[in-house]
TrEMBL record, chain A:
This is Copper oxidase. The keyword Disulfide bond does not apply. It is found in: Cell membrane; Membrane. Its main location: membrane. Keywords: Membrane, Transmembrane, Transmembrane helix. The keyword Phosphoprotein does not apply. It is a multi-pass membrane protein. Residues 23-189 form the Heme-copper oxidase subunit III family profile domain. The lineage of its organism: Bacteria, Pseudomonadati, Pseudomonadota, Alphaproteobacteria, Hyphomicrobiales. It holds the Pfam family COX3. The chain crosses the membrane at residues 21-42, 62-82, 94-113, 133-157, 169-188. It comes from Rhodobium orientis.
From TrEMBL, chain B:
It holds the Pfam family COX1. Component of the anaerobic respiratory chain that transforms nitrate to dinitrogen (denitrification). NorB is the catalytic subunit of the enzyme complex. Shows proton pump activity across the membrane in denitrifying bacterial cells. The mononitrogen reduction is probably coupled to electron transport phosphorylation. Heterodimer of cytochromes b (large subunit) and c (small subunit). This is Nitric oxide reductase subunit B. Keywords: Cell membrane, Electron transport, Heme, Iron, Membrane, Metal-binding, Oxidoreductase, Respiratory chain, Transmembrane, Transmembrane helix, Transport. The keyword Cytoplasm does not apply. GO terms for cellular component: plasma membrane. It is a multi-pass membrane protein. Pathway: Nitrogen metabolism; nitrate reduction (denitrification); dinitrogen from nitrate: step 3/4. PANTHER family: CYTOCHROME C OXIDASE SUBUNIT 1, NITRIC OXIDE REDUCTASE SUBUNIT B. GO terms for molecular function: cytochrome-c oxidase activity; heme binding; metal ion binding; nitric oxide reductase activity.
Length: 189, 456
């Protein structure tokens, strides 16, 4: 965590977390919210499996699949950025962060196209319970991608190794949530 | 007392305690009206007494927060309050406003008047001139304490306290916005009501509790601050979108049912954290502070807040449950224990801690004070349990069986009688508390052998 060399690892497990305790509080809170949202989705789905399957057919599975690859690759680049920063290569760090943010933007463009297509087809949160959850969960996630890109820009600017760990932890949470949302919302039959 | 300007807190405490007395007496009266509905119906109708009960609660709690801030900020910032004169002026404005409110409500003066009349929105009934006075008083307060903190030492406790108090003042501005559309009216109304008690007040509560733990247990500031940040983060994370649990049935879009259910379920976390925090600090603490009553109130506050706000809140926060329980006695049960645990007990903990210091006496009448804690708290817990049973019966008869409201009320009579009884216990507890804090003790009660052994 800090630059000081420790021969004896800290007894407090909280001290051993990479990044900052507050970021982990946020990550756990986010996972609780998305987890609860998915649990509620799956519970309501039991009441109307046919309706949920029919609603799901309105989604673009291929676009979401591409987005999954885009976001996971972006997370990989962000992880490489932390490694580069720990090796002291600040220029390479910034390049990797910019590439990660760019892929985040690609995700937003693809997802934005999906949303506009859905709105054009007259789908809304009130259309069917499936779409209430779909728009809530992916909409919240979309907002987190936007926040994540801002954070990537911030840590590219203030690029201490500590900030890098904190900021990329958030970004990994964002792609972890998508990796769970994608199969449950788009693929589960 | 290290700083002379901490004395300001004493005046705030007296005003708060006077209003607290009014509040519980009105509560007792209301409890009696529930079982004898025609009692005083011509002189003091139920709705007026209820307004006084809830408004005096809110005003005394805020007055207590102000007092606590004036007490702890000099110590935390290590300097005198910027202007004691402004602090007393602020209190004067609050007292005049409160008196104006009481007179306006009791005699229904200037009904319908834009500036002087009762505004008629639950909890925000104050006439507009009083609302303006509250804003002026809040601005004076914020100026005064912010100047003090800016020039002095900055600690996590004062930072969070100021964040909470600024939020309290800014959110109150929504009280001036009253759209014609009833759904919008309610939507903005909750910005004040919900974002106060389930948002910024939690920040105030956490910071004051942290201060008390610092003083009473002697745990390192670094440890206390880490807890404080976690509590505040989880409170804001869950509390802001938790507003959605008020948007289930007021005409807002259906997705609020899920946002409200999910986020407000997480509101239990900060309260659980505050309870864990208080007990862990006591276990870790190396200091045996002589003011054991203040410690009892602090622990009681954190515990009852967890049950009242956390558990009893969760009880009816999921929209599938709330569809049946909305507006029944379940709500009343939750409201009573949540306010008592989180904010009443917190204020009484601060008063218990600071009164002996400000009045230059050793902790006195501690046994009475601790007795008042047990009497008041057990009265309140009994009331909560009683109202919960009443609410469960009411939900079934009224919402499931479809009986009409007033027939159901008749079926609940036994619970309302028991609630009145627990109200008597609470009022006795309050009187005992007032005596223990305000009247100097004539003899020092020696601690028993168990306490002495623990202290060694």
């Amino acid at each position: 965590m800090s630059g000081t060399a420790r021969t004896i690892p800290s007894a407090d497990p909280l001290e051993q977390l990479p990044g900052d305790l507050m970021m982990w509080v946020l990550i756990v809170s986010e996972l609780l919210v998305f987890g609860a949202g998915l649990a509620a989705f799956l519970s309501v789905r039991i009441t109307d499996p046919a309706g949920f399957a029919a609603a799901q057919d309105h989604l673009h599975r291929a676009a979401a699949g591409i987005n999954t690859v885009v976001l996971v690759t972006s997370g990989f680049l962000a992880a490489l950025a932390v490694r580069a920063r720990c090796g002291g290569r600040r220029g390479r760090t910034r390049l990797l962060l910019a590439a990660a943010a760019l892929l985040g933007t690609v995700f937003l463009v693809v997802k934005g196209w999906e949303f506009s297509d859905a709105f054009a087809a007259g789908l809304s949160t009130e259309t069917h319970p499936f779409f209430t959850f779909y728009f809530l969960l992916t909409g919240f996630h979309f907002a987190h991608v936007v926040a994540g890109i801002v954070i990537l820009a911030l840590i590219g600017w203030k690029d201490s190794p500590h900030s890098l760990e904190v900021g990329t932890a958030f970004w990994h949470m964002v792609d972890l949530v998508w990796v769970i949302l994608f199969p449950v919302l788009y693929l589960l039959r | 007392m290290k700083y002379q300007s901490q004395k300001i807190a004493l005046a705030y405490m007296y005003v708060a305690l006077a209003l607290f007395t009014v509040q519980v007496l009105m509560g007792l009266l209301l409890g009696y009206i529930y079982v004898q509905p025609n009692f005083l119906s011509e002189i003091l109708p139920f709705n007026i007494a209820r307004m006084l009960h809830t408004n005096s609660l809110v005003v005394w709690l805020i007055t207590g927060f102000f007092g606590a801030a004036y007490f702890l900020i000099p110590e935390e910032s290590e300097r005198e309050i910027h202007s004691p004169m402004l602090a007393y002026l602020q209190l004067l404005i609050l007292v005049v406003g409160t008196a104006g409110v009481v007179v306006t409500y009791l005699f229904n003066l200037f009904d319908g008047n834009f500036l002087l009349g009762n505004e008629g929105r639950e909890f925000l009934e104050q006439p507009k001139w009083v609302k303006a006075g509250i804003v002026v008083a809040a601005l004076i307060f914020l100026f005064n304490v912010t100047m003090t903190v800016l020039k002095g030492r900055k600690t996590a406790v004062t930072n969070i306290l100021l964040l909470g108090l600024w939020g309290l003042a800014l959110l109150f501005l929504f009280a001036f916005y009253n759209p014609e559309n009833l759904a919008l009216d309610k939507q903005y109304w909750w910005y004040v009501v919900h974002l106060w008690v389930e948002g910024v007040w939690e920040l105030i509560m956490a910071s004051i509790l942290a201060y008390l733990m610092l003083k009473l247990t002697g745990v390192d500031r670094e440890v206390v601050e880490k807890w404080l940040y976690v509590i505040v983060a989880t409170a804001l994370f869950s509390g802001i979108l938790g507003t959605g649990h008020h948007y289930y049935w007021i005409g807002t879009p259906g997705y609020w049912q899920w946002i409200g259910s999910i986020f407000s379920s997480l509101e239990v976390i900060p309260f659980f954290a505050m309870m864990s925090f208080a007990f862990v600090m006591v276990w870790k603490g190396r200091r045996n502070h002589p003011n054991r009553a203040a410690l009892l109130w602090s622990l009681g506050c954190a515990t009852l807040a967890f049950f009242g706000a956390g558990v009893w809140g969760f009880l009816h926060t999921l929209h599938g449950v709330n569809y049946y329980t909305h507006g029944t006695q379940i709500t009343a049960a939750h409201g009573h224990l949540a306010f008592f645990g989180a904010y009443v007990a917190l204020n009484l903990a601060v008063f218990t801690y600071m009164a002996p210091i400000l009045r230059g006496r050793d902790p006195y009448n501690q046994v009475l004070n601790m007795a008042s804690f047990w009497l008041m708290s057990s009265g309140m817990v009994f009331m909560t349990v009683t109202l919960t049973f009443a609410g469960a019966v009411q939900t079934h008869l009224q919402r499931v069986m479809g009986m009409n409201f007033i027939e159901v009320q008749d079926q609940l009579a036994i619970f309302f009688w028991m609630r009145f009884g627990s109200g008597v216990a609470v009022v006795l507890g309050v009187l005992l508390f007032l005596y223990s804090v305000l009247v100097p003790g004539r003899e020092v009660v020696a601690p028993g052998p168990a306490v002495q052994a623990a202290a060694e």
